[in-house]
């Protein structure tokens, strides 16, 4: 069971009309995730409060302990000899849906849904096997629902899992007109006797952190993103005020195209490296950013030490930071900042791990290493975040 930190209960409220673009004469107040309606500390406290309640459902094969990226079910321990261990994950897309619906762009949001589930399962070393989804709405629009499902199908193909079923629920009065929500559920497996990541007992000081490039904002931080867009005065159909990295001179996308770029699915590359026994652990960088997600894969005596200048920050994050006057510390807790997945490997395994990851379509960066952590110390330290201010 994994608590999704960035799903806001204000997701389906009517949007505020864009204000005319104007340059403020003085710096505006900094925007934060909390000011956009999402409290990470409250979410973390909720998880802590329900831990014992959830644990009371434990049975042979399932400890019912929460806090990892996916839930595990050891079928052998549950009475099915020589069966694989199942990894189960569920998630949604959060308030990114609001932009898709406002802009009438539904064809890729299903990829996000599969990605948010599949990436949470593959970090534990599991191959994704089957996926199911739920599409809930006020009144079914077959055209919109078909576009969403086409995205789910594309995501399943990228994750190499079968779409085995789902649910479509029309709930008049529960949702505003033209509003829908989607939720996904994935089943993955690790062969009997196979290791479940992270291998915390094998981690040591000096292990290397490899960052895998993200495709953009992925599916996190969109409550804050929408507040920033409102403040900026831009409409979603406007061209972005920056050139895309690696693009030809003068080539720009619209803001909605940029923000709705689907979440990258890392299953093929992570599994390829895992099967060569090159990975000790991995973290899917979702709500909570680098600083909250990497420690979830670490033992309590180790911390991640990251150098902020070790990878290029995509221009969309630079723009969000500037327009929202968002602090670097807040950016690191809300957004992936260009790193969608972090892999932990021994120094001697890094060259081969990089080769395999790159061969499978990843852009990798050596972003840091593991260091010792004192009791009560931070699980992730990002050095040089002031570089993000320039």
| Computed structural class | alpha+beta
Shape summary? globular
Mean pLDDT over the full residue set: 86
How many strands?
Answer: 11
Q: Helical region count?
A: 11
- Characterize the largest beta sheet: strand count, sense, and whether it forms a barrel: 6 strands, mixed
The neighbouring-strand order within the major sheet is: 7-9-6-10-8-11
As a percent range, the share of helical residues equals: 25-40%
CA radius of gyration: 21 Å
How far from one another are the termini?
Answer: 39 Å
Low-confidence stretches: 1-25
Question: Quick gist of this model?
Answer:
The chain is of the alpha+beta class. It is built from 11 helices and 11 strands.
Question: What this model shows, in words?
Answer:
This protein is of the alpha+beta class. The chain has helices at residues 40-55, 96-102, 109-122, 142-159, 222-232, 255-259, 267-275, 289-293, 315-324, 328-334, 350-359; strands at 71-74, 85-92, 127-137, 162-170, 180-190, 208-213, 281-284, 302-307, 339-345, 364-372, 380-383. The strands form two sheets. The chain has a six-stranded mixed beta sheet. A five-stranded mixed beta sheet has the order 1-2-5-3-4. It is globular, with a radius of gyration of 21 Å. It starts with 39 loop residues before the first helix and ends in a 7-residue tail after the last strand. The model is unreliable at 1-25 (pLDDT under 50).
Give the helices and strands, then pairings:
Layout: H1 40-55, E1 71-74, E2 85-92, H2 96-102, H3 109-122, E3 127-137, H4 142-159, E4 162-170, E5 180-190, E6 208-213, H5 222-232, H6 255-259, H7 267-275, E7 281-284, H8 289-293, E8 302-307, H9 315-324, H10 328-334, E9 339-345, H11 350-359, E10 364-372, E11 380-383
Parallel strand pairs: 3-4, 8-11
Antiparallel strand pairs: 1-2, 2-5, 3-5, 6-9, 6-10, 7-9, 8-10
